[in-house]
């Protein structure tokens, strides 16, 4: 039985994370863990403003804490009710310390983490992907399914392949962890440089591997700038397409100066992304 973690901000509960996680756990008879990142430094409103604006500042701060605790309890109840309705094997973790470190620790002991692309784990409206998401994806210890704001059942997949081991690793993890989704119609997309031929990298080896996991996959090989060409081609697909890609991990300096393909696709907030790196 696989262990899937659904990561939640209890103050901004993601219905989409819940829907994708429940569907995947049900499809694969997996144990689903709802991880609620209740960072003790995170409130729905600024505690400093609450204390500054109120005559009885400490009583109003207590009220804020009680309101937030109630909101977080409701989120846990919603998760538990959905899991029970789907007859899932599930559990709940309430992590109270620094959200990023807590979720990275949880990922060590998970097969897959499901998380909303728009998560910030703070009360501010950061443009996706927020710093929290960038840092988590770069250092996660298991594959991550980044989901859009609206749930759409997965009906097909696109596998991004550039001939590098990291892209093959992502396809492997997708096949091993989500066999139900990997059995759906699949397209392998490869973008070559303008001076390269249009052959699939390691053509014989890749197709031999794919025949065992995605034997009906179709292949698209084109020339162009991958950073522009891949998003453009994916826009031809609707939100029922799951995109598989690897190689998120980079040095901190590199992540600062050049965004990853995952960053670009997350910004679209349209497709679920299965991201795995070695």
TrEMBL record:
Q: Which domain of life is it from?
A: Bacteria
**What are the UspA domain coordinates in residue numbering?**
206-276
The protein depicted here goes by the name Universal stress protein
Organism of origin: Chitinophaga agri
